[in-house]
Design goal:
Largest sheet: 5 strands, antiparallel
CATH architecture: Sandwich
Helix content: under 10%
Number of helices: 0
Structural class: mainly beta
Strand content: over 45%
Number of strands: 9
Distance between the termini: 14 Å
Length: 99
């Protein structure tokens, strides 16, 4: 059983800390849904949209797009912040807190 795991919904065009802000975590999946223009989502190491982008995903027009980071996930030692543009209308991030 994975302890301290979660899935967080992406709210249309809204940047947000993933899970508890500033706590080390691993992200396993990022799925975004775009409107009539391809959306862009960045996962940043830290707590703000100005922190270093570890990964950027450009979506597909009027469709969903998923990136999987494998069984080990991608480590965000300073926490993970999701930075999206207005064309991302939804999605999901799956994560667990690093121990």
């Amino acid at each position: 059983m994975i302890q301290d795991a979660g899935t967080q919904a992406i709210v249309s065009g809204t940047d947000a800390a993933i899970g508890s802000s500033g706590i080390a975590m691993r992200v396993f999946t990022l799925h975004i849904i775009s409107d009539g223009t391809a959306g862009v989502a960045s996962l940043r190491n830290g707590t703000a949209a100005t922190d270093t982008a570890y990964v950027t995903l450009t979506g597909t027009i009027s469709a969903g797009k998923t990136i999987n980071f494998g069984t080990q996930g991608m480590l965000f030692p300073a926490g993970c912040f999701l930075d999206v543009n207005a064309n991302v209308i939804g999605g999901i991030v799956t994560f667990n807190y690093a121990s």
